[in-house]
Amino acid sequence: MQRGLLIILSGPSGVGKGTIRKYFETDERLNLTYSTSMTTRKPRAGEVDGRDYFFSTREDFEKAIQEGGLLEWAEFVGNYYGTPLKEVNRLRDEGKNVLLEIEVQGAIQVQEKCPDAISIFIIPPSMEELERRIRGRSTEPEEIIQQRLAKASNEMKMVSQYKYIVCNDDPKLAAELIKTIILRHVELEENK
Ligand SMILES: Nc1nc2c(ncn2[C@@H]2O[C@H](COP(=O)(O)OP(=O)(O)O)[C@@H](O)[C@H]2O)c(=O)[nH]1
Ligand SMILES: Nc1ncnc2c1ncn2[C@@H]1O[C@H](COP(=O)(O)OP(=O)(O)O)[C@@H](O)[C@H]1O
């Protein structure tokens, strides 16, 4: 059996990663599984432990780092985020293509460890529109929004680290483009 692909989806907070993902992740042709991350961030209303994130304490997160349990991890605006390694390996060994939705520092770590990873960076149509989206979502207090926007400007400078760049103007179109990218790689893998 072919080992599954590793796909990295990154982009600034509020750009629409989660929104786009919902449009393509259920397409069976992609044979895709989302890797649930571990985080010390508090759950937002409606978020479910084990589905959206594995919500953890800083202590447990640091233990996971020390035990080598994370494929990558990063600190983002005051919280830890990381990808559980075992689960990613298990899914890929089963032939599943695994999708990581992670920020830039983590994406760089993954690309160093797995040079075959398919990395996609989502950009907003403009920084003003990014601000409108992050504010419109109303999930963070003003202070955190400011920090996330400052972070976004730096993250945008890292686009050259990615294989593909997709603009999220229309979310359905962005999802179609991502689907095309993944399907092309699936095809290439099958013809190897
Ligand atoms: N490095 C890394 N980043 C992650 C991981 N999980 C989520 N992130 C990123 O952490 C950032 C903050 O995530 P979150 O607080 O859920 O905010 P949101 O992405 O704006 O909804 C986003 O850029 C996520 O893509 C992970 O496992 N590792
Ligand atoms: N193409 C788009 N046009 C307008 N609003 C969008 C678009 N994509 C996402 N949004 C909105 O922007 C906000 C942030 O999207 P979200 O998917 O939570 O971003 P992320 O997962 O990257 O942090 C949400 O309120 C979402 O409905």
TrEMBL record:
<keyword id="KW-0808">Transferase</keyword>
<keyword id="KW-0067">ATP-binding</keyword>
<dbReference type="GO" id="GO:0004385">
    <property type="term" value="F:GMP kinase activity"/>
</dbReference>
<dbReference type="InterPro" id="IPR027417">
    <property type="entry name" value="P-loop_NTPase"/>
</dbReference>
<keyword id="KW-0963">Cytoplasm</keyword>
<feature type="binding site">
    <location>
        <begin position="11"/>
        <end position="18"/>
    </location>
    <ligand>
        <name>ATP</name>
    </ligand>
</feature>
<dbReference type="Pfam" id="PF00625">
    <property type="entry name" value="Guanylate_kin"/>
</dbReference>
<keyword id="KW-0418">Kinase</keyword>
<dbReference type="InterPro" id="IPR008145">
    <property type="entry name" value="GK/Ca_channel_bsu"/>
</dbReference>
<comment type="similarity">
    <text>Belongs to the guanylate kinase family.</text>
</comment>
<feature type="domain" description="Guanylate kinase-like">
    <location>
        <begin position="4"/>
        <end position="183"/>
    </location>
</feature>
<comment type="function">
    <text>Essential for recycling GMP and indirectly, cGMP.</text>
</comment>
<dbReference type="GO" id="GO:0005524">
    <property type="term" value="F:ATP binding"/>
</dbReference>
<dbReference type="InterPro" id="IPR008144">
    <property type="entry name" value="Guanylate_kin-like_dom"/>
</dbReference>
<dbReference type="InterPro" id="IPR017665">
    <property type="entry name" value="Guanylate_kinase"/>
</dbReference>
<keyword id="KW-0547">Nucleotide-binding</keyword>
<protein>
    <recommendedName>
        <fullName>Guanylate kinase</fullName>
        <ecNumber>2.7.4.8</ecNumber>
    </recommendedName>
</protein>
<dbReference type="GO" id="GO:0005829">
    <property type="term" value="C:cytosol"/>
</dbReference>
